[in-house]
Design a protein that fits this description.
By secondary structure, this protein is an alpha+beta fold. It is about 30% helix and about 30% strand. InterPro entries: Acyl_CoA_acyltransferase (IPR016181), GNAT_dom (IPR000182), MshD_Acetyltransferase (IPR050276).
Length: about 325
């Protein structure tokens, strides 16, 4: 008999137990865990989302599985973003199913009608435990993402930039004069990037959320370097982000977006090359950069491959009704 209980992430011992399960379930190089401080901040309620965490215990009271549900409050309010994690030694005993049932109940209590989760598997495999679990529990595949890595140090192509545009970079807080435009770039991603049939809405981003996000990054020790392209009129035509965790040798390529009116000028590639050049000091000693793109996003995949990224895994976004 599996017993599932809610976790108070503000309780040090309770969170440590939850994080231990999470970390032991994410041992593959292409699907590594967030740092503990990052995971804890991500699971703390704020104005933009209600978060819940649970732990499952076996008949002996041993913690054997965990899970989380994140429910946005200002966008995508029909969806509960769920994650189930079971260390390998505790799988195939019904613990993950008990966790999922608890998370779906939490979603219902918050008025959610759709659950969305992810499964990641190696590029040379057809499936794995996460994918099999999702499909057995009624989830269907909505969209497939390709996970790519760039081994460091890397030789990037020379920077070629349309002379009508300029590139600039900052770390830490966004310059005040660009704050509203940058928030709008962050807002646009779901609509402008390929997505599945679920039809994710654009996330709510405004100046206040950008500042809150920056404060969270500082709190967890993650350096975010943002590079932007400025159009001839001085407005922001696009951006890209390189995220540097406070520990370890990983780097993550996060959002990259060019406004539709400014596409066709090679800005996506130019932004990424410029970002890597500007981050030379932060990249030193790091092992790789990891990025995710929809498998159908052939343009951005071509940009990444031009930089030397190679595919290591697939990531499926799975949905089901609650």
């Amino acid at each position: 008999m599996t017993r599932v209980q809610r976790v108070d992430v503000s309780d040090d011992a309770a969170f440590a137990e939850l994080y231990g399960l999470y970390a032991r379930a994410h041992t593959r190089t292409f699907d590594g865990p967030y740092l503990a401080i990052e995971k804890r901040v991500n699971l703390t309620d704020d104005a933009y989302g209600t978060k819940a965490a649970v732990v499952a215990r076996d008949v002996h009271g041993l913690a054997v599985a965990g899970g989380t549900a994140v429910m946005a409050l200002q966008d995508n309010t029909a969806i509960a973003f769920v994650e189930v994690f079971v260390p390998p030694e505790h799988r195939r005993r019904g613990h993950g199913s008990a966790v999922l049932d608890a998370l779906l109940d939490i979603g219902r209590q918050h008025g959610r009608t759709i659950a969305l989760g992810e499964a990641v598997w190696a590029v040379d495999q057809q499936t794995d435990a996460g994918r099999a679990f999702a499909e057995a529990r009624g989830f269907t595949l909505d969209i497939v993402d390709a996970v790519r890595e760039l081994t460091l140090p890397a030789d990037v192509p020379p920077l070629v930039l349309d002379p009508a545009y300029t590139l600039e970079t900052w770390r830490g807080p966004c310059p005040q004069e660009w704050l509203d435009e940058y928030a709008d770039l962050r807002r646009m991603l779901n609509a402008e990037a390929p997505s599945g049939d679920i039809g994710l809405e654009n996330e709510h981003w405004d100046a206040a959320r950008v500042r809150k996000d920056e404060a969270d990054l500082a709190r967890v020790g993650r350096i975010m370097q943002v590079s932007v392209a400025r159009a001839p009129d001085g407005s922001l035509a696009g951006h890209t982000q390189l995220a540097f965790p406070g520990e370890g040798d990983e780097v993550y390529q996060w959002d990259t977006l060019v406004r539709p009116a400014h596409r066709g000028h090679g800005l996506g590639l130019a932004l990424k090359i410029h970002a890597m050049q500007a981050a030379a000091d932060l990249l030193e000693g790091r092992r790789r950069i990891t990025t995710w793109n929809a498998a159908s996003n052939t343009h951005m995949i071509a940009v990444n491959e031009r930089l030397g990224f190679w595919q290591s895994a697939w990531a499926g976004e799975y949905v089901r009704t609650i």
